[in-house]
Amino acid sequence: MPHAPEACSQFALPPARTPEKNSSPKAPTSSSTPSPKSQIGSDGRYRATRHLRRSAAKHVLARDPRFATLGPTLPAKSHNQEILSGVLERIIFFNEENNYTIAELRPGDGREKTVITGQLGGVQCGETLRIQGTWTKHPTHGPQFKIASFKSELPASIYGIRKYLGSGLVKGVSKGLAERIVQRFGDDTLRIISEDSAKLQEVSGIGKQRARSIKEAWDEQVVQRELFIFGQTYGLSPALCLRMYKQFGPEATNILRNEPYRAAREVQGIGFKTADKIAINTGIPNDSPQRIDAGVEFVLQDLQDEGHTAFPLEELNTLASETLQADIEIIRAGVDRLLESKALRATEAINGHTYLQLPYNFFAEEKIALSVKRLQETPSGLPPIKRDIAADWAEEKAGFEFGDSQKDAIKGALANKVFILTGGPGTGKTTILRAVVSILKAKKAKILLAAPTGRAAQRLAESTGAYAQTIHRLLKFDPSEGGFVMNENKPLSADVVIVDEASMLDARLAAALLQAIPSQAHLVLVGDVDQLPSVGAGNILKDLIASRKIRYVTLDVVFRQKKFSSIVHYAHAINKGQVSLPAALEDVRQLDPKKDFQFLSATDQTDAANKVAQVFQTFIRGELRLDPVSDAQTLAPMHRGLAGVGNLNQTLQASLNKNTEAMPFGTLKFKVGDKVIQTRNNYDKNIFNGDIGIVTGIDGSNGLIDVDFDGIQATFDKSELIDLQLAYAVSIHKSQGSEYPVVVIPLLKAHFMMLQRNLIYTAVTRGKKKIIIVGEPAAYAMAVRNSDAKSRCTLLQELLR
């Protein structure tokens, strides 16, 4: 029977969220526009407007720089509204939820810099803006110009042209080169570049080839700018538009305008909601087959993002009907079309329900089940091993007495073709792994060790004394083929494959791994089932255990209680639902370097963010004499809010990285020395989701950033930077598989949507030496008491039975 069908029947898509109250500084709150909720429009369409303006402006692009307008046409001037034009100098604050911005504008009439506030998405420093709005007076910060609407223009002033060319918007033109070009051609500069680029050779340092390159870069940015402006209306970031341009080239704007559902399918990050908004404006009917089919797939993908690999047919029909505001019979017809074209797969379960799956989830779970059965049915390729004697030998070699469950685990790993070892921190999983590896080495067996992330693989290697690598590198992805080199047709060369942090395995990665294991080999999966499940769809470790088709041992006796008393003690208390905390401290100066688990009180998100920064500067760098970048990590429950990942990253970057040279990218600024994280697999660069690195170089004129990922060097251009984020703070989900000497965890009642036992348990078990929780004791209690983690609908259990 599929996993937790009862939970599936209660599942509903989460409502759209509005920004938190503290998501912008106090100064501009009076003029802040809150994010509108998702709603159904009068035309019956599903409206997902969190990132979108309610009324799309008409856009006009002037391809000749002599025509200034590059943005939406401003409406007629309203009563009491004024026009303000100038160069965007600095973005002080930007809220990604609703595009609310606080920025500085240098007016073209010679006035001093002006603070502007309002929705200002999709623009970058150096651009010339023509803004319609009204003057307001902030009680603390004085006069501000509140934006009603705006358009982006090509600059007309010498200053504006110099700023625009040197901003990095035109690839290959540095600030110095921009200065020389403008000095030579003055206010005729942009016409020269566009229409008579050969004259650029009159500027020192520009030859024939470079002049041609500047002209090509100019033409490219004009086309890109058209895409940016069109995309801006629908909430698409410049980085996402660059990704579209890389996919479709000069036709990107036309495809987005005329084939929005195609754009959503082929470009990650656009999604059905944005495509549907565009379709409304282009007249695609509410019940058109292309919309219904795309919408049903969107609903399944949204469920997949929640971790489900399958969903009951009738419940999906109902959910899709409500989401798309379409008659259920129209939805059923769409499902039938998708099944006929094999865009969806259906499985009849033993409980009488039909489950729908996206094809790759269908094949992934099927391949996992078939691979497990293949391994179990094939005789072992290991030489004969007397398991009792081997366990005693390993115990003697370790120098201390093993517990009964530990000996059972050693013998189980040697005896069973597929074996699972689970247990919490301090229960001896590492001891077992080390013992099994030593026995296998003594028998000259070929062992392969792997883990889902680089940090987990590094820890596995350190704990066993054997080479370990990530699963992606073990399987050797081939970008030209779009798949792994090692597979069922070219299996791994191994007698035993050991995989640590197996709770992180999603269905697709697990399928690829199991297919590549040779039939005579053993597979040992090691993990903690009480941690967060995989980020990707599936519930592999729990499903394998629950199927009762695979031998497993759970270690539940704590052996390292004395050595790591506090962290292990509190981790196990959390797992049992026991709320216990050390005394809450009021001041960072009260933190004790000798204690390994401490709680620092914070009254709200602002207080928590400030105290997190103080912990890094005063305690970690000052008292502990540790490197706050490499030796410590902030793990936050949420991305949004002042105590969320986004704001904490900017706060910690300002505090810990004093380098002045930076390359702006959207709301971020990358500096040499920044800690960054890759958020999507990039097989071409051999860099994977969750890999953390350090920025080692910046080439602002060409929009390039160099990053060192633990010895792997990678260069990113601007179209790839959308997949790179600061990593002074990361989400708890992203921390899976990693350990850090010091872990700092902001935890407040404002995070209530994420306060779950397995979340705080995962965070606490990431700390090797010290845990510092910054927040409210009540929030900690809420998390520990909340064991209602969302169930996932999967079919793997049924396929294994």
Automatic annotation (TrEMBL):
Report the InterPro entries cross-referenced here: AAA+_ATPase, Coronavir_polyprotein_1ab, Hlx-hairpin-Hlx_DNA-bd_motif, P-loop_NTPase, RecD2, RecD2-like_HHH, RecD2_N_OB, RecD2_SH13
Q: Which NCBIfam families match?
A: recD_rel (TIGR01448)
Residue spans crossing the bilayer: none
- Recorded protein name is ATP-dependent RecD-like DNA helicase
Q: Which GO terms describe its cellular component?
A: exodeoxyribonuclease V complex
Q: Note the Pfam families from the entry.
A: AAA_19, HHH_5, HHH_RecD2, OB_YrrC, SH3_13, UvrD_C_2
Q: Which UniProt key words apply to this protein?
A: ATP-binding, Helicase, Hydrolase, Nucleotide-binding
Q: Quote the CDD domains the UniProt record gives.
A: DEXSc_RecD-like, SF1_C_RecD
GO biological process terms, semicolon-separated: DNA recombination; DNA repair
The GO molecular function terms of this record are: 5'-3' DNA helicase activity; ATP binding; DNA binding; single-stranded DNA helicase activity
Q: Where is this region: Disordered?
A: 1-45
Tell me which residues make up the Helix-hairpin-helix DNA-binding motif class domain. Answer: 198-217, 262-281
Q: AAA+ ATPase domain location, by residue?
A: 415-556
For bias type Low complexity, the affected ranges are 24-38
Hydrolase: present as a keyword of the record?
Answer: yes
**Keyword Glycoprotein appears in the UniProt entry:** no
Q: Which organism is it from?
A: Pelagicoccus mobilis
